[in-house]
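Input:
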Amino acid sequence: MTTVDAALLSMDAALPRQDRLRALDQYAVLLARASRRPLRLLTLLSGPGILVMLGENDGPSMLSYATTGVTYGVGFFVPFIILTFLIAFAVQEMTVRLGTATRRGHAELIFERFGPFWGYFAMADLVVGNLLTLVTEFVAIQAGALYFGVPPWMSIGGGVLLVGAALASRRYFTWERALLALALGNLLFIPAALLAHPSGAALVHALATWGPIPGGINALFVTMILANIGATVTPWMIFFQQSAVVDKGLTKDDLPQGRIDTAIGACVAAIVAVATVVVASTLMHAHQNVSSLVSGADFATALRSHIGNAGATLFALGIIEAGLLAAMTISASSAYALGETFRRHHSINLSFSEGKIFYGAALLSVTLAGAVVLIPHAPLLAMTIAVNVIATLLMAPALLFLLLLVNDREIMGDLANGFKANIVGGSIVASISLVGAFYGVITVFPHLLRH
Amino acid sequence: MVENRPQFGRRELGLGTKLLLVSLRIYVLAAVPLVVYAFIRAMH
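Output:
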């Protein structure tokens, strides 16, 4: 019998398992706080912020950064990517506040405060968007594994099994720690960038001067801008982090650590994104034709002659990790949203018998997505385009509801947005909504930007 | 996390928020066919 089992037995048996496990985690937090161990406290409370930020450094996002590097180098886009992560931090900080103040997930709050129409809409939008995004994650896993000669059925099957294995712990804390360990793989892009022998002077110059805009404003430049924003701020992040904060049991007292967790995640994710731009910029200097680079395996193969076999291997491994971590977090966000909307149990602390719907939803979504990738001649490109359109067009409602909820003093109390936070939040919502809608429109009508 | 806990209940909406939500419904009505169109177009 483990210590956790003994502690569970000593608690009131009438309490559900998920509440007893969460109480144990909160007790460890109380002990760390009482014994004034700030680092231990931060270690215990960190997780959702790092996972959401590194989870969004997913397969398609890493390919967006790599394409940016091949097309434009580091000049304009390195500072721009850092700016997008500052925006991502501002958005995700609001979800941490919302989760700790209300102890409810995002889908649940929309349903309760704005009624069934918006509740079902938010859930359906998220679940459909997530399912299509999961397809693109498995495409990334498959492409990264192909670089090592692993057949698709094996890499996809292995990916689905690993998502299931992480959930099989039936313990939020264990699941989170396993994912944090996997997220370390995102750092592989950093040594790959170092192997490209980047010019420190060029990076400092890019940060100090930010510009000029390479080649002026044209369709490709606008697409790259929009793709990089879409690679850092997406609806699933809002839903996932708020649900994870609630499942982890964070309270108002834990808000400072929740913010630090999110800031650490944003910083690390930004460094990895910049590293990916840097490593791919070696291909720009070699005048590589960007249209020949479609998948992670294409990039790794093209990079091999410039950064060596080790660097290309790190890049391919990083792409696999990016897809796998995102598959784990995105499938969890779908399961949380379904449970919250239909008022079913939703927690990674549930036993299998209590959480049939929760675990079933997560596993079904990854299994379906994996199966789609294995279908010969499946319209994967069409799905990728639909993912981009859904994520960007529907970012507006997600951000608007976030802003309305964090201004709802009845549920937020003293954690509601102040004037300055509303100026920052409002500007972000307005600009991302406009940019998102614009991206959706030019994806459907690309000829609008041809001239 | 506890499914039988009391709900917050519907929010009292001011005129500005109501107008915003009506605009959002119109936006969504335009966005959904756009997504379907994008998918079908990409299939071809």
